[in-house]
TrEMBL record:
It is an enzyme of class 1 (oxidoreductase). It comes from Streptomyces scabiei. One of its GO terms (molecular function) is 3-oxoacyl-[acyl-carrier-protein] reductase (NADPH) activity. Belongs to the short-chain dehydrogenases/reductases (SDR) family. InterPro entries: KR_dom, NAD(P)-bd_dom_sf, Sc_DH/Rdtase_CS, SDR_fam. SUPFAM superfamilies: NAD(P)-binding Rossmann-fold domains (SSF51735). This is 3-oxoacyl-[acyl-carrier-protein] reductase. Keywords: Oxidoreductase. Its EC number is 1.1.1.100. It holds the Pfam family adh_short_C2. It comes from the Bacteria.
Length: 246
């Protein structure tokens, strides 16, 4: 097991991958899939908890200087960068009539600025790759909104504009940028909903269930692959049909 300070030794042909929020939920599933494929992976998370076969670094994505430091270390250890998965995020739900400035700002700072910081720190490395991939993990809340989720929906909507701008800016370097919109997924965050609210949400899903982290991770790793090289600027729901027609 690599500890947070252990160096990486990427093998020939392995892609060089950074995942933010890589220790839990969707992020952890993404990390595990890339590792299983033989890729060299760095996980950035607030805890920096060790993950088998991965260089795990503690990093607060809302802190620009912390991100610059961690990204520089990650790119140096990897010897470059091919894939960036922007996944870190938080929720602090409250009705807009009751939401404090801090509740709104902290979610935007982590979910939106916490995407901008690693993107800005990695753009040059991704351009040098000539096969760069950036995947943003947003949410169906970006399209649908949600009661008590004004801050979360706004931050996740912002990722779409950021991603499509980046897709245009990196296209000349054959890099692709796409957005994944998970619906209700069986993660700690998804299980935090009151049982009645969770069941009402499941009842609204045409497929009749919550998604799994593996289902979201499989799309992310596909979009990072060579087979998906002609897909860029796409916004793809993984939500059991909740947002169809939107």
């Amino acid at each position: 097991m690599l500890n947070p300070g252990a160096p990486l030794a990427p093998t020939a042909g392995a892609r060089k991958v950074i995942v933010t929020g890589g220790t839990r939920g969707i992020g952890r599933a993404v990390v595990d899939r890339f590792v299983a494929q033989g890729d060299a992976v760095v996980s950035l998370s607030i805890s920096g908890a060790p993950i088998d076969g991965v260089l795990s670094l503690a990093c607060d994505v809302a802190d620009a200087q912390d991100v610059e430091r961690a990204m520089a270390r990650a790119v140096e250890e990897l010897g470059g960068l091919d894939v960036l998965v922007v996944n870190a995020g938080i929720a602090r739900d409250n009705l807009l009539s009751r939401m404090t400035v801090d509740e709104f700002a902290s979610v935007v700072q982590t979910n939106l600025m916490g995407a901008f910081h690693p993107v800005r720190a990695s753009v040059r490395a991704l351009m040098r790759s000539r096969q760069g991939r950036v995947l943003f993990c947003s949410s169906t809340a970006a399209l649908l909104g949600g009661v008590g989720q004004g801050n979360y929906a706004a931050s996740k909507s912002g990722l779409i504009g950021l991603a499509r701008t980046l897709a245009r800016e990196l296209a000349r370097k054959q890099a692709t940028v796409n957005v994944i919109l998970p619906g209700l997924v069986d993660t700690d965050m998804g299980r935090d909903f009151p049982e009645k609210v969770r069941q009402e949400f499941i009842d609204s899903v045409p497929l009749g269930r919550a998604g799994t982290v593996a289902e979201v991770a499989s799309l992310i790793t596909y979009l990072a692959s060579e087979e998906a090289r002609y897909i860029t600027g796409a916004v793809i729901p993984v939500d059991g049909g909740v947002s169809m027609g939107v």
